Amino acid sequence: MIFEGLAEKLQNTFSKLKSKGKLNEQDVTAAMREVKMALLEADVNFKVVKDFINRVKERAVGDEVLESLTPGQHVIKIVKDELTHIMGDTQSKINFSNKPPTIIMMAGLQGAGKTTTCGKLAKLLKKQGKRPLLVACDVYRPAAINQLETVGSQVEVPVFSMGDKEKPVTIAKESVAHAEKHGNDVVIIDTAGRLHIDSNLMNELKEIDNEVHPHEKLLVLDSMTGQDAVNVAKEFNESIEINGVILTKLDGDTRGGAALSIRGVTDKPIKFVGMGEKLDELEAFHPDRMASRILGMGDMLSLIEKAESSFDQKKAKEMEEKLRSQQFTFEDFLEQLEQIRNMGPIGDMLNMLPGVPSKQMKNLNVDEKELNHIQAIIQSMTKDERTNPGIINGSRRKRIARGSGTSVQQVNKLIKQFEQTRKMMKQFSGSGMDKLKKKGGKFNMPFFG
Amino acid sequence: MLKNLFKGNDEENSTEPVNVSEEKENTTNSETEEVSEEVVSLGGLFGRLKEGLTKTKKGITDRVDDLVKSYTKIDEDLFEELEEILITADLGVNTTMEIIDQLRDRVKENRATDPREVKGLLKELLTETLEEVANPTLDLKTTPSIIMVVGVNGVGKTTSIGKIAHKLKAEGKNVLLAAGDTFRAGAIEQLKIWGERSGIDVISHQEGSDPAAVVYDAIQAAKSRKVDVLICDTAGRLHNKKNLMNELGKVFKIVKRECEGLSQESLLVLDATTGQNAIQQAKIFKEVTDISGLVLTKLDGTAKGGIVISVSKELKVPVKLIGVGEKLEDLQGFEPKNFVNALFD
Questions:
Q1: For A140, which residue in chain B has the nearest alpha carbon?
Q2: Tell me: the pLDDT tens digits for B123-158?
Q3: CATH number for the domain including B92?
């Protein structure tokens, strides 16, 4: 829904633009206004947006529009590349200490999901052959220790606690001694949620930091956080110099602009993302996916890239040759079909095609099941049958239908359509594919009728 | 010098409908130390609200003041900067643009030529937006009355329930709690501790049991024990999880069926640090549990909580309570005038 917002707006912005060529400053400025709105709606901090827009503008002006994209798509591509670049590489790794135990400290605001994330991280590390110890340093929130103990038992990781009467710094110190004694090579310290402006509690965090010197200090941040994310990240980073960030609740439908805001003010990597309430739902952070998400474009952006990379002039020419000389076989067709389907749902794919108005495409429903059938039918043919469809007689048809789980009628239909398409192709000698495309604005791909 | 000018203007500005006493205006326009003094003297609700919002207030106010002073006439740059301030307060692009548009009209109507008037007009607009749907009271007429508390994970539902229960008990009401969060580890225990602190009973089943059954039992207990208010906790859930929302819908249905004719409140808890997603949360929770009010938590941080303006505007659901701290008594009734005044004082 949001995708249509931005994509359509950009399409409109560029609709007056007849020639492709280079992007001029005026066009880019107009487009950047829409991008700015999209980023703000995604909760990216206002200042971060401003800086970002200026950077992209500089890069985009004068850029040559790629042959396979519309100017609007080209701008989106630049924006996405830049977003991905800013959010850094995939760094979903914990820095382990040479001398165990490795100490990891989790910190963040109330309700960010620290305790749950501790459990998830413990489970992940256990899977990697580590022997983690969970440490209950949240002595303030009622039942926080209880919660960590339950989570610990769920992931079968021991939990170290000293009740809620001891000081967190004492608990942290003792836990490290405990880990050394019991052979735990990773210590994960769960701290209480605290406001970044609460100097007492921030000092407490510093005390723990100075006492046990954690190798990893991770800020746990709710992905739904709004403009305030910059303040939170900045303050935590200034107090304890974090090593990275874990973004939680990303299984919701927030656009997650906070991810960009954090990078804008701290330059620290986002290491993991929480993707659900189950304790194995901690995933690696993918900057490119996050970029698409912030722009509200789902997988569309990867489609642009795929379309771009699979747009191979040479191959297209070859295919055209084949079509014209009637050498086009089921083999080629299957290959083509698979190539297209690799890009994602056909409906989305058609949306991406340059020059196709997205509004008209909205009502177009391509039956994915039908494509499954077609694929199955072709795959049930022998090599000979695929290259030389003429030999497919009655008994072969029966066998193909049985093999593909379809009916003889369906097989007949496909073969008939295939023959017709081949004939039709032959008629378009000369301008070939171009004519096909121009036919009445309606996009006629073989078999999608 | 500029400060005095500004103060003078405020005093003259008698058309301003928001009736702030001049004394208050003076205090906030001078020293911050005096502000804290005043907070003490005001005490109670308003004082605590102000105290909790000091950070917020400073942010917006200082910037608006700075801004207003730095412009000599009302031009596009001024509106653009005001836009920025509202967006930074999490009002969102749409609400901000609407409000700025309205502000433009007002500026024309009032023939305002002095940029310093703009602040008053903006304040007026924001207050009106909130007042349009305002209704700070909880409907607790019958015995028992039922309050259901819902929201996404980590917004502070259980803590808010602890505070609401404490407040009602202090008002002399007989309160009962239902531990409807049977999913999150430690949630039942957490509610029980809050209950103990205020001397309130908690109806609970085991972790992992059916929340609808807990709520059903609690309703029967509330009826037979003749308690005044039953508050039902529910598990935090992201609004885009279909099955979890269906589960919540089922709980809500039971409350509706078993409590026909009784006063019912369905409160959505929103975290003040949340950005634009709060609108989506409110929309979907409203569809499923017919939200009657909002509780805005964590206003004691640096987050502005401006999202409630957008939510009130779009969904016509009033903010009823705000959380301004971690203590039991840090929950206050929401009053639009105070809220906006505290932002702009």
A1: B326
A2: 899 999 999 888 888 999 999 999 999 999 999 999
A3: 1.20.120.140
